[in-house]
Design goal:
Elements (H helix, E strand, L loop, with lengths): L1 H15 L8 H14 L5 H20 L2 H8 L4 H32 L8 H15 L22 H25 L4 H21 L6 E12 L4 H4 L2 H17 L5 E3 L13 H13 L3 E9 L4 E10 L3 E4 L13 H11 L5 E2 L8 E3 L2 E7 L6 H8 L4 E6 L9 H16 L3 E5 L4 E4 L5 E5 L5 E11 L3 H5 L2 H25 L1
Parallel strand pairs: 1-2, 2-3, 4-6, 8-9, 9-10
Antiparallel strand pairs: 1-13, 3-4, 4-5, 7-8, 10-11, 11-12
Helix pairs in contact: 1-2, 1-3, 2-7, 3-5, 4-5, 5-6, 6-7, 7-8, 7-14, 10-11
């Protein structure tokens, strides 16, 4: 039993290697096949424990980089930081336990012919719940690991969430092939299904969902300020100087993008500077898009993306980071937070995600963590011809966190077949093609300005139009069918 526990934990660790920066998605598929092999015919209790241990391994390997932010920037000691990380991992692992518990129930309801669908179904149901429950945590959605792979062609059709179903299904089918080698006919059928799905995904990469609309020069700026400098007079003056210099050197019609909270003074405190920027930008038909802190008072603010110059509008961050920008259940956790010494500024959420215009360019905006919420991004992207996301990943140092963040952005570009530009304070700043590939990027902790002509695309993919609705509908139909089958089995018994 202990040997199986360690092997299950190992499978979880291996599964996490499918995500960036390792990109060993095929190994993640094999880890699912291995897990099914060692976890056959389990009780409901053992199914939950198996899933929990698997999840603990995955999350331990996948998000341990959060320690950097909590310890080094949250000023919490080694033991306190480690405790909080392990507590978070332990909580997230419950979701993985629920996946395998639900799978156990669905297998008992399903027929032998369709039981290969129970684990992908369970997996996606719990991932969707995780994406929304308690404000949502859609990080390490399994399907995101397929971005820029040989089999990411279905993404514009089924999205990253659909790719989770696809990925787990491949793992189940491979397990079935290995298990049924003695009954050659069944094994060949599952092998055919596996090859068919892989070829379909590969061939689908050639489909063009959107149409060329034009090009526009876009410069991306990575100021590379430390967190201490960023909030100092030195950082304020340097950022203003960089913005002024960028506008002075910009060409006609250029879009200039600075990262999240590049300007830490609110508009009323930056009024003279912003008015000068407006004047200069308008003269050259330039649009500056920059993160700015919009303060309500000393303790309350909005995380804003502001456009200035040729076009003026703003977008306030809708999806806030729990325990970073706001405290869930603050009234109940107050005393515990006081012990930990957490004193966070309260950030107010925006009302809606909306398009930001820059001349003929219609940008779908997102700020930092929001890029992980596929349905939120889809809302504005349908009416856009370019995606823009800004972030400040300095909190996470040279960990794998910013690389995972970039991978999520690649998925958003691929889902909608539109280019995406990403400006960050300290990396990774990047241009991403409509196929989800990185065209150009700037690595960690270097001050850099990137500039290139970005291609604008009009039109929508299947996923842009319908989102996860078809996937959820198919899952619900499947659940109804196996539920009815379960009732039929019980009726026959009696």
């Amino acid at each position: 039993m202990l040997k199986k526990r360690f092997l299950t934990l190992f499978c979880g660790l291996i599964f996490s290697l499918g995500f960036a920066p390792f990109d060993l998605w095929w190994l993640a598929i094999l880890s699912i096949s291995t897990l099914l092999y060692i976890g056959e015919n389990l009780s409901k209790k053992e199914s939950f424990i198996t899933g929990y241990i698997f999840g603990f391994g995955m999350w331990l390997s996948g998000i341990s980089w959060l320690y950097v932010s909590i310890h080094y920037h949250g000023n919490i000691g080694i033991f306190g930081s480690s405790f909080l990380i392990l507590l978070f991992i332990a909580a997230l692992s419950i979701y993985s336990g629920l996946v395998f518990l639900l799978n156990n129930y669905l297998i008992s309801w399903s027929t032998k012919s369709f039981d290969f669908l129970t684990l992908p179904t369970s997996w996606v149901i719990i991932e969707i719940i995780r994406s929304y429950l308690f404000t949502g945590f859609p990080w390490l959605i399994s399907g995101t690991m397929l971005a820029d792979s040989y089999i990411d062609g279905l993404t514009p059709i089924i999205g990253a969430q659909g790719n989770s179903f696809f990925l787990i299904l491949l793992g189940v089918l491979i397990f079935k092939v290995i298990k049924l080698t003695q009954t050659k006919k069944s094994a060949l059928l599952y092998l055919f299904c596996t090859v068919f799905l892989v070829l379909s995904a590969y061939i689908s990469k050639t489909i063009e969902w959107t149409e060329l609309e034009g090009k526009v020069p876009v410069s991306l700026h990575q100021p590379n300020l430390t967190l201490e400098d960023k909030w100092s007079n030195y950082g304020i003056i340097k950022t203003q100087g960089m913005i002024y210099d960028s506008i002075s050197r910009a060409e006609q019609g250029e879009i200039i993008v600075f990262p999240e909270t590049a300007l830490i003074l609110s508009e009323k405190d930056n009024l003279n500077f912003l008015n000068e920027i407006r004047f200069l930008s308008t003269q050259k038909n330039i649009t500056l898009i920059t993160g700015i802190v919009q303060r309500q008072d000393s303790k309350t603010m909005r995380n804003r993306l502001q456009s200035l110059g040729a076009s003026e509008s703003h977008y306030d961050k809708v999806k806030l980071v729990p325990f970073g920008e706001f405290i869930p259940l603050e009234d109940y956790l107050g005393s515990f937070l006081d012990i930990l010494g957490l004193d966070l500024t309260n950030t107010l959420p925006g009302d809606e995600i909306k398009v930001i215009k820059a001349g003929k360019t219609r940008l779908s905006p997102s700020i930092c963590y929001e890029i992980a919420f596929d349905n939120l991004i889809r809302t504005a992207t349908k009416d856009s011809n370019l995606l823009v996301t800004v972030s400040n990943d300095t909190w996470f140092g040279k960990s794998i966190g910013p690389i995972q963040h970039l991978e999520i952005a690649q998925n958003r570009a691929l889902e909608h077949n539109k280019e995406l530009v990403r400006s960050t304070n300290s990396g990774i700043t990047a241009y991403i093609s409509k196929k989800g590939t990185i065209i150009e990027k700037q690595e960690y902790f270097e001050e850099k300005k990137l500039k290139r002509n970005v291609t604008l695309y009009s039109g929508n993919t299947f996923y842009s139009k319908y989102g996860n609705f078809p996937l959820i509908s198919i899952i619900l139909i499947y659940l109804v069918l196996i539920f009815l089958n379960n009732i039929k089995k019980r009726t026959n018994v009696t």
